Amino acid sequence: MSAGATVPLLALLRELSWSHARHQPGRHAVAVLAVALGVALALSVHLINESALREFSAAVRQVNAQADLELRGPRAGFDEAVYGRVATHPLVALASAVVELDGVAFDAAGAPVPLRIVGIDALVAAALTPALLPRPDADADRLVVLDPGALFLNASAQRRVATPAGTPPATLRVRGGSGSLTLAVRGSVLADGPPLAVMDIAGAQASFGWLGRISRIDVRLVPGADRDAVLRDVALPAGVRAAAPDEAGERVSNVSRAYRVNLTVLALVALFTGAFLVFSVFSLSVARRLPQLALLGVLGLDARARLRLVLAESALVGVAGSSIGLLLGTGLAWLALQLLAGDLGGAYFPGIAPGLQVDAGALLLYGALGVFAAVAGGWLPARLAQRIAPAQALKGLGLAHAGAARAWVGPLLCLVGALLAFAPPIAGLPIAAYASVACLLVGGIACVPAALAALLRGVAPPRHALALLAVERARHERHAAAVAVAGVVASLALSVALTVMVTSFRDAVTRWLDEVLPADLYARGSAGTSGGDGATLAPALVAAARALPGVARVDAQRVTPLQLDPRRPAVALLARPLDAPERSLALTGPLLPARAGQVSVYASEPLANLYGLHAGRTFELPLPDGRRVPVHVRGVWRDYARQHGAVAIAADDWQRLSGDTRVNDLALWLQPGADRAAVQAALRQLAGPEVPLEFASAAELRALSLRIFDRSFAVTYWLQAVAIAIGLVGIAASVSAQVLARRREFGLLVHLGLTRAQVRAVVCAEGAVWSVAGAAVGLALGIAVAVVLVHVVNPQSFHWTMELLLPWPRLLALVAATVAAGALTAWWSARAAAGPDVVRAVRDDW
Amino acid sequence: MLSLRSLAKRYDGTSVFEGVDLEVAAGEFVAIVGESGVGKSTLLNCIAGLDTLDAGRVVVAGAEISALPEASQAQLRRSALGFVFQAFHVLPHLSVAHNVALPLLLLGRPDATAVSAALAGVGLAGFESRMPQTLSGGQLQRVAIARALVHGPKLLLADEPTGNLDAATAERVLELLVAQLRAHGAAGVLVTHSAAAAQRADRVLRLRADGLVDA
C-alpha cells in the first residue's frame, strides 16, 4: 500500500470507525472478548501442555545420561559383565552402570507412594548424570554416598514422604523388585520430576534382587571415537541396544501427543466461534453504516478502500482481542499449573509441578491466530462493504446487488470435507480429519443459500401479506440467510458433534466396562496404578485367596510394560487366564484358531492399529530377559484403557516363557451370600502388612472410570455452552443487522397499516424460521462432523473404535433449546423494528 | 374527509406548531407548503396516527384517529389511507405486482385484476413481474402511486412525491397523481416545496409555527 493510500485509511479509521465503535461499545467489546477468550483458551492449553511436557522431559533427561551412548537392556536388566567389556574398551572414556526399578515407598502414615529407584556408582556418575549425584546431608559423612543402605531423595519424593513436621524422614520403608526393606534417608538429589530415590548401585542390586544385573550403561567415548566400532567390539547381548540420545524425550512426547493435539484443537474451536461472532458484529456494523459507506463511495472512496477499511477494523478488533487473550491465556495457564500441576485430565504428567514456561513463538503464533480469526470473520462483511452499489444504497434499495457467494463453493467444500475424512493420519495425527471437519462446517454454511433456493423454488408467492414478505425476501435475499443462520449452524453443529462424540464414547466405554469387569471384587497391590513390579503379589497369595471362605473363583493378572518399539511408549502386557478369550476379552473381530507350536496372544485395538498387528499376524514378543519369541495374534480386542496398546496372553504361556510368576491384580468371584468385607479382611490378613491391598467392586471401578471419563470431557460441555452463547449473540447481531437494513421496509409497513407489535412479530417469526432452518442444517452438519470425529479422529488419535450413537432426545432438546433461544433473541433484537425510528426511517426525505 | 382541530406538537418542550386547523372535503386536493423544519412531515405523521399530539384532534373518514388505540389506528391506515413518499419505498425483494398488491393483501382481499388496473392507470401495464431494481426513479414513483391507490383509500397523503425526480418526470408524475386521485375520488394532502406542484392543488396552504394560513 502506498503512503498516499495509508493516510486516508488511518484517517478514516480514526474519524469514522472509531466514532462508530464509541457509539456501539458493547457490540465491539463482545467481539473483542470473543477473540480474547478464544486466544486465551488456546494459548493456555498450549502453555500448560508445553510446560508440563518440558518439565517432564527435563526430568527424564536428568535421570538419563548426558552421554554419547546409552546401552539399555530389557526391563529385567542384563548381565553386568557387559559393563566390564564396555568400561575397559580403549575408546570409552567413561562408563557408568545404572540399575533402575519401579518401587513403592511408604510415607509416615503408611500410605504407599510410587517411587523410582535408581542405583548408580556415585564416583563415576557425576560426570554423566549430575542431577543424580547424591548430596549428603550436612551432618553426614562424604562417603555415605557409597553406603548400600543410604537413600537420597529428590524434592518430589521428599515432599511425598515427609514427616508430619514437613522434614524428610530419617528412614524410609521401600518395596521394589523382590525386596522390601527400610533404608536410611541421608540426603538429596537435584533431579526434578516424579518421586525418585538414588542409592549406591551395589546396595540397589543387593536390596532388590538385582545381583549381577544392571538396567543400562551410560558411556562417554574418547573424542573422535567411532560409535559403531565400539558397539561392534563390545558385542552387546540379545535384548541390549544402543538407545538414541533423544529417544526417551521423544517417547515422553509421543505418550501425550494425540491428547495434547486434540485438546488444542478443541480450544481452537472457541477461536473459530469467536470468528463467527466477529462476522456477526461486522455484518451488523456494515449494515448500520450502509448509508455512510455508500456516501463515502459517492465521495470517492473506491470499493477496494472500503474493503480495506472494514478489514482494518476487524484486524484492530483482532489485535485488541489477541492482546487481552495473550495476557488472559498466560494468567490462566499459570493458574492451572498452580491448581492442576499441568494435568488437564489426561493424567499424562504425574508427579510433577511444572512452572510456567512462556515462549515468544507461542505468543506470536496464538496472537496471530486471533488476528487471523478476526480478519477471517470480517472478510465477508468487508466484501459486502466493497460491493455496495452506492447509488442503489442511497436510494434505499439495499444490497440487492451486493453480490453473492459462488453457489458451487459450499458443495465443493462439503465434497472436499468428505474426501479428507478418508485420508490417512499425517505424522500420526488426524490433521486431514480436522481439515475435513472445518471444510464440512464452512461448506455446510455456504450451502444454506442454495438449500434455501431449492426449498423455495416450488413455493408459490403466498397470498398473505406477511408470508409474502417473508418468502419473497428469503427467495431474493437468500444470501442474507447465510449470514443470519451462520452462527446458529456453526454453534449447533459443534454442539451436536461434541454431544454425539462424547455420548458414543461414553456408551462404548460403559459397555466395555461391563464386559471387562465380570468379577464381584478386584484387588491389587497398592500404588500399582499401571502394573509393573512395584506392586506385585506373590503366587502363594493367589492360591490362598482361592481357599478363602466365600470365594468362588480367583483370576490373577500380571501386568508389565513391554517395549515393542523404543521410539514409542511402552505397551502393557496382560497375562491372565484366557481359557475362553471370546468371553473374557471384548473381541472386535473373529477369533482365529490357535496355531500349533506357536504361542497365542491377543492384540488390543490400539496395538493392532499402531503396530499393524492384526489377527493372523505373527510378531516377536520381547521377554524380560531380552529374548524374543514369535507369537501369533489370534484376535483383536477392544481396550479403552491403554491408548498405546496392550497384549493379552494366557498366564500359563507367560509364566512358561518368562518364568515370571508374579501377579498384580486379582479378580474375585464371591459365593452367593458371601460377605465382601469379610473376604477383604481375610485377604488383607493373608497379604500381611508388607503388601497393602486396594479393593474395589466392579460397580465402584465402573463408577470411578465413568467419573474420570466425565471429568476428562467436562471441557467439552463448557465449549458447547460457549459455542451456543456465541451462536445466540450471532443471531442477535444478525437480526439487529436485518432490522437496520430493513428500517424503511418496516416503516412502510407501519404506514400501510401494520401495528408495531405486528412488525415485531414479523421480525420475531423470521428469526424463529431462520433459527429452525439453521438448527436443521446445524443438526445435519453436526451429525456429519460427529461421524468424522467418531470414525476418523478417534481411531487416528487414540487408535480405538466405537459405534456412532445418536442420542436423539438430547439432540432434539438441544435443537429445541437453540430454536427457542434463537426466537427469543430475535424477539429481543427486534425491539428496534417497533421503535419510533422505524416511522422516522420512512421520512428520510420528509 | 379530514378534519384537524387546534393541533399542537412539541418536541422536548419546544413547539413545532400549534393551532393547526384544516378541513379537507371528499375528493378535495390540498397542498401544504412551508419552510424546511416547520413540521410538515410531523403534521402528516400526526394525521396518519403515527405521531402523538400534544393538543387537538384529528378526524379521518369520520373516525377520530388521534383517540383510537394503536391497533385501530393501524386498521384505519390500512383501509382509508394511501401514502406516497419522496424516496418511493418500493420493496426491493418484491416484484412490481407484489409491491402494488401489498395493501390489498394486508386487507385480506388479494385482487390481481385490481393490481393490473392500477398499474395500467399509471402507465405500467405489463410491468407486473419486473423487479424494482430494473426501474427508473419515475417508474418507481408510479409504482408507489399505484400502490397508494390500489385499495381505494379515502385520503392520500403525499410527501414531496416529486422531490427525487427531474423536472420533466416530476411534471408527468404529478399529473398522473392528480389524475389518479380524481379518478379514485379520493381526497389528497400534498406536502411540497415546489410551487409548480402546489399549483395543481385545489387549495394551497402554508404551515407556520402558529398554524395553517392561505398561501
Biggest pleated-sheet summary of chain B: 6 strands, mixed
Strand order of the largest sheet of chain A: 17-18-16-19-15-14-20-13-21
Share of helix among residues of chain B? 25-40%
End-to-end span of chain A in angstroms? 42 Å
- Structural class designation of chain B: alpha/beta
CATH architecture of chain B: 3-Layer(aba) Sandwich
Structurally, the number of domains of chain A stands at 4
- How much helix, percentage-wise, in residues of chain A? 55-70%
Number of helices of chain B: 7
Number of domains in the coordinates of chain B?
A: 1
Cα radius of gyration of chain A in angstroms: 33 Å
Q: How far apart are the first and last residues' alpha carbons of chain B, in Å?
A: 22 Å
The spatial strand order of the largest sheet of chain B comes to: 6-7-8-3-9-10
Structural key phrases:
heterodimer, A: alpha+beta, nine-stranded mixed β-sheet, B: alpha/beta, four-stranded antiparallel β-sheet
Describe the fold and architecture.
The complex is a heterodimer of chains A (846) and B (215). In chain A, strand 7 and strand 8 (179-188) form a beta hairpin. Chain A has four domains: 1-63 and 249-403, no CATH class; 68-244, no CATH class; 463-516 and 702-846, no CATH class; 527-691, no CATH class. Chain A is of the alpha+beta class. In chain A, the strands form three sheets. Chain A has a nine-stranded mixed beta sheet. Chain B is an alpha/beta fold. Chain B has one domain: Rossmann fold. In chain B, 35% of the residues lie in helices and 27% in strands. Chain B has helices at residues 40-47, 70-80, 96-106, 112-121, 137-149, 167-184, 195-198, and strands at residues 2-11, 14-24, 29-33, 55-60, 63-64, 81-84, 155-159, 187-191, 203-208, 211-214. In chain B, helix 5 runs parallel beside helix 6 (167-184). Chain B is globular and about 50 Å long. Chain B starts with a strand and ends with a strand. Classes of the chains: A alpha+beta (846), B alpha/beta (215). Chain A binds chain B through residues 392, 395-398, 400-401, 461, 463-465, 468-469, 472-473, 475-477, 744-745, 747-748, 750-758, 839, 842-846, and chain B through 40-41, 44-45, 48, 50-51, 70-71, 73-79, 81, 83, 85-89, 91-95, 98, 102-103, 105-107, 110, 131-133, 137, 159-160, 163-164, 191.
